[in-house]
Design brief:
This protein has helices spanning about 25-30, 30-40, 40-70, 90-100, 115-145, 150, and strands spanning about 155, 160-165, 170-180, 185-200, 205-210, 220-225, 230-235, 255-265, 270-280, 280-285, 285-290, 290-295, 300, 310. The chain is about 25% helix and about 25% strand. It is found in: Membrane.
């Protein structure tokens, strides 16, 4: 079957774009810090470079302007004259003085004198503005680098979900795994069934979301994810898949979104990994191959069999039938 449009991609990216915001787009500026963090890396680096370049050129121009208005540029080599900033002859020397002051390098060749009140005021303004810009941009870059998005890429989901019997009950199952040795603290998993439906009153609900119980009442949704686990949703009278059979699976159109959340042990930040399964990726009458084996003093996980399934006898009827 031709692959249809997904609500959530296999890599967890949501295929939703917001358009025609109108005046609401101003809310992005009211939360500028989050907007910058959400930008792609190339735009972050561009804004980082442009902000510092423009700020440096503007502040250097102000120092050059003070020297020009006081006439220091023409009398810079006069030993009897006390300039605002010593040894500032032109714009490059004013720019170097600004960089030395901003970076606290202090070569000692260029320095501000006490007979320049406007220079002292500009120096204080430069110090405050530089601290604000550094805190904002460096903080933004630090938050972006420490985001746990890359950690989510080491959380793996099986390519397909399966429907088979477990303990005499028909269940929908899929597999999750953690590729790193570091643990996910307080890992929790949730599932959403996304399917369009029409209410008895005639209202059409596109992409209606229903909860698939994966052990919320029993605590099975709280995972100890040190080895691959098979997540199980029991199909019963309370399940949205109550009427799902092997035959109806061919004509149904739905998407199961899986959300895995936890705290990264090394950083303490919350990480979220997502994936989805369409009706074409639900295999009726299959079961996952075992991936755990006992070796000499430890348990070995064979990730080459992580996505592998095999057929098992399963009734083709729905739970309702």
């Amino acid at each position: 079957r031709r692959e249809r449009q997904r609500f959530v991609d296999k890599n967890g990216r949501c295929n939703v774009q917001h358009g025609n915001l109108g005046g609401e787009s101003s809310r992005y500026l009211s939360d500028l810090f989050t907007t910058l963090v959400d930008l792609k890396w190339r735009w972050n680096l561009l804004i980082f470079l442009l902000t510092y370049t423009v700020a440096w050129l503007v502040m250097a121009s102000m120092w050059w302007g003070i020297a020009y208005l006081r006439g220091d540029l023409h009398r810079a080599h006069d030993d009897a004259y006390s300039p605002c900033v010593a040894n500032v002859y032109n714009f490059p020397s004013a720019f170097l003085f600004f960089i030395e002051t901003e970076a606290t390098i202090g070569y000692g060749h260029r320095y501000i004198t006490e007979r320049c009140p406007e220079g002292i005021v500009l120096f204080l303004f430069q110090s405050l503005l530089g601290s604000i810009v550094d805190a904002f941009l460096i903080g933004c870059m630090f938050i972006k680098m420490s985001q746990p998005k890359k950690r989510a890429e080491t959380l793996m989901f099986s390519r397909a979900a399966v429907v088979s019997q477990r303990d005499g009950k028909l269940c929908l199952m899929f597999r999750v795994g953690n590729l790193r040795n570091s643990h996910m603290v307080s890992a929790q998993i949730r599932c959403k069934l996304i399917k369009s439906r029409q209410t008895p009153e005639g209202e059409f609900l596109p992409l209606d979301q229903c909860e698939l119980d994966v052990g919320f009442g029993t605590g099975a949704d709280q995972l100890f994810l040190v080895s691959p686990l098979t997540i199980c949703h029991e199909i019963n009278s309370k399940s949205p898949l109550f009427c799902l059979s092997q035959r109806s699976l061919r004509s149904e159109q739905f998407e199961i979104v899986v959300i895995l959340e936890g705290i990264v042990e090394t950083t303490g930040m919350t990480c979220q990994a997502r994936t989805s399964y369409t009706e074409d990726e639900v295999l009726w009458g299959h079961r996952f191959l075992p991936v755990m084996s006992l070796e000499d003093g430890f348990f070995h996980v064979d990730y080459s069999q992580f996505h592998a399934t095999f057929e098992v006898p399963t009734p083709p009827y729905s739970v309702k039938e």
